[in-house]
Amino acid sequence: xxxxxxxxxxxxxxxxxxxxxxxxxxxxxxxFKLEFDLRTGAMCSFLIKSLxxxxxxEKRLAVLFNLRLQHMDYECDYVTxxxxxxxxxNGTKAEILFEKIHTERGEFPVSLRLWIELDGKxxxxxxxxxxxxxVPVAEFWFPCLGGITCFGNLADTxxxxxxxxxxxxxxxxxxFPTGMGLGDLVPESVMMCLKPPFPTMPWFDIxxxxxxxxxxxxxxxxxxxxxxxxxxxxxxxxxxxxxxNWPTPESLGNDDPIGVAYSHIRFPYVRKGDPKxxxxxxxxxxxxxxxxxxWHNAAPIYRSWWNKHFTAPKEPSWLRRRTAWLxxxxxxxxxxxxxxxxxxxxxxxxxxxxxxxxVEICAWDKGGQDRDYPEYVPxxxxxxxxxxxxxxxxxxxxxxxxxxxxxxxxxxxxxELFKRELHRYRRMDEFGNSENWMHWGQSTIQARHALSVxxxxxxxxxxxxxxxxxxxxxxxxxxxxxKAMQVDKTGTSEQLLDFNPLATxxxxxxMPEGAVRSCEWLLAKCREIQPDFVFASEACTDRFIPxxxxxxxxxxxxxxxxxxxxxxxxxxxxxxxxxxDFAGVxxxxxxxxxxxxxxxxxxxxxxxxxxxxxxxYIKEINRLREELKAEIFLARWLDDLGAExxxxxxxxxxxxxxxxxxxxxxxTLATELPKASGDVPLSFSVHQRFDDQRRSIVVVxxxxxxxxxxxxxxxxxVNKAALHAPFMNTRxxxxxDELVIEPQGLHILVEEFS
Length: 754
Fold this sequence. Notes:
Helix content is 17%, strand content 31%. It is α+β, with helices and mostly antiparallel strands. Helix 3 (341-352) packs parallel to helix 4 (384-397) and helix 7 runs parallel beside helix 10.
């Protein structure tokens, strides 16, 4: 069973120059003092000196690591009691060795060496796991912080998660889950890329609002692999009541330990002689770092590490400079033709009248949308290869850039090609299964409700033979003149373990790292033919940034992924489908995202009569953004930092926040959702130019009524700004002026230097 509290007496060899007290020894510097149990190696104290607080207040839950062995006849063989063979504690460093590991099934030749180092405001955790047994280590938990009871008053804490479509703020320390899941020994919340909020970066941040202090928790591993963050709640679930809902000794009727245990988990699958995972796992470093302020102050910690291993684009590509797209879908999977190659050319010409010179072409290929993948050849019913080539040539001649839709590793499983060959390349779980939940029917009731629909499964991202198949299609498109493709669904495929025997990477990296490296390889192959070739993608995590110029679904009308703050070079599309979606258009301006227009859900021209008002508005927005591209599109997005608005006598903040009331099992009562501005009808974001550092405020009115507000920059004394708004002449305003913003309107306030 999972083991979170180890208590065993043992005689062991210790070498220590640190101060010992009883059965403990410590390492410390000016920021921290960490104590370890000499009998078990468990970390039983985590003292933050500036706060005069040991956050591990419940010593009976002390723990340092855990792991699970995966036997053929017993899959849940977790660690039991273990004693270190050797402990070395010297000043700011600890080294702890376990030569043999004891689990429920007995002793195994699994050795584990752990290093903990205090480095200024950071605590660094490294490990070396070696498995000389034939049983794979399927889970490795390290570090573990058992018995968390405080970081200041936990009622004042929030936990930031860098979600796929926005910042999420949870109550992982102030609230216990009010129930348990199947198989839980204690209530738990597991946050990983496979589940909402689908973290885009491997770090999170705990922030105490009263103390204005934060703790950054980051997994720094150059290899993109599956990992998880687990919070366990002892000894049971909490009551369904507002505020802090921890159980108490009085409610329990005993003295059982009460606290939260945190663990970072990896899935190495190392074992003796394994040809992919090998016998040794020593990848990545985990960092806990104290900082002032909230997650915005923690973000540079991660970006600094990221820059040492990866390279973001130094200049925006031609596609990154485009502020708006038209999205089209030609052929539905049930054979309905929305338009053909000649028709989509007319739609693209229509879009150009509204300042849109980029068109994504979906369902151009054999079988149509979500059918016959990966046979990316022109469909004969739409005009065949000759008609497709004529379309590409005509778009290029008229200054319109086509973005061609495809997938990397989604494959339809009903095709003859799948039955004959592609089935060998499917992603497999450890039981040889491949999920087939992916289906998007369109033209019939049965199809739309999955009663009769074609299904897709994932191909492994680490099989060279499959990559060659995909490359043959993509390279041919590049040869025909295609300079941009939107590679769909990569954000889901990177979240899975893969046990296909043909995969060339271990299970935890075969899909995530494999998808990244495959995109890198495919991009290089296409650039051999077309040097300006670029990818957009429905990617999720930051590891694609060096190879993907634009993410497809990382923003919405209310939020954008926090990568927009951490990586100012990066942005996403905001999809605008409804004729009344002025909020989506305004959000794209607020976040510095691409407006992706989808009339009648990809099925119509932007001149469709229902879209008359929206497209006139988009045309004006495109004019403004071309004029202010360096201020609010190709600029650094600062969230709400550096500005304040006053509305109705209330000082408001405008931090970007995704809407989600249940993260990883932490149920939040509706009245407790941490809202940025409550019922305030205004939202805003701040942007900063890269060259002269000039700042701008984008203010959005989300209501149906005009609103009055006052504004000010907070980074410096700014008395005047240039006010830009749709269908209005630009004018200079004073910080003393009260402004009126139209219903569902937009203001752009550009700082004027003295």
